[in-house]
Amino acid sequence: MELYEYLLLAPNILGAIGSIYFIFNYKYFSVLGRIIGWFVCFTFLCESIGNYYADLDINNLFVLHIYTLGAFFFGGLFFNKLFRLLKWNYLKGWYIIIGGLLILFNSIFIQDITTYNSYSKTSSQLIIIVLCIIAYVLMMIREYPLRDIRPVIPV
Fold first, then answer.
1. Residue 155, pLDDT above cutoff 70
2. How many CA atoms lie within 13 A of 148 on its CB side?
3. At residue 146, does pLDDT exceed 80?
């Protein structure tokens, strides 16, 4: 195998390692860590399915549509929980549902499932970036008593 082939396998290998670690140590993760852990498992699954279809020389862009929806869902869920811990309750659960429905609407009616979903991918990533900036500002301007201060690492 050439070096580039190993590099192409790296995301799958790292995703498998992260998913296995998360599943076996699930009980030690906080709520926020569990959301990220499930997102790692979801990403590994999407990456594996995409690689499988690519190896068969079949269009695998439908996986990107699924991944975009999942990334938006997990990101929204993560920030919803984080903002509640930070006592900032302006990100409502129905915002995430509306965003998910818009992503589905785009995939069904606007951009074909076999094409790159640039509209929903770009919008969802911009929303996640804005949520990251809001979380950073909230954590910098106030002091919050987070219960996730020390992670429990199994020995």
1. no
2. 11
3. no
Residue 152 domain flag: no
CA angle 123/49/23 to nearest 5° reads: 90
Residue 153 covered by a domain: no
Q: Is residue 147 in some structural domain?
A: no
* Secondary structure (3-state) at 154: coil
Q: Which amino acid, residue 11?
A: P
Whole domain around residue 43: which residue ranges?
9-141
CA atoms of 30 and 28, how far apart (whole Å): 7
In the chain, the number of structural domains is: 1
Tokens of 125: 């990533």
Give the tokens for residue 132: 């990251």
With 70 as the cut, is the pLDDT of residue 154 above it?
Answer: no
Could you give the angle at which helices 31-55 and 3-24 cross, rounded to 10 degrees?
Answer: 140
Q: Please calculate the CA angle 148-154-155 and round it to the nearest 5 degrees.
A: 140
Q: Is 35 exposed, middle or buried (0-12, 13-18, 19+ CB in 10 A)?
A: buried
> Averaged over 126-142, what is the pLDDT?
92
Q: Is the pLDDT of residue 68 over 60?
A: yes
pLDDT in the model for residue 147:
58
pTM metric for this prediction: 0.87
Of the candidates 94, 97, 118, which has an alpha carbon nearest to the alpha carbon of residue 106?
A: 118
- Evaluate whether residue 151 is within a structural domain: no
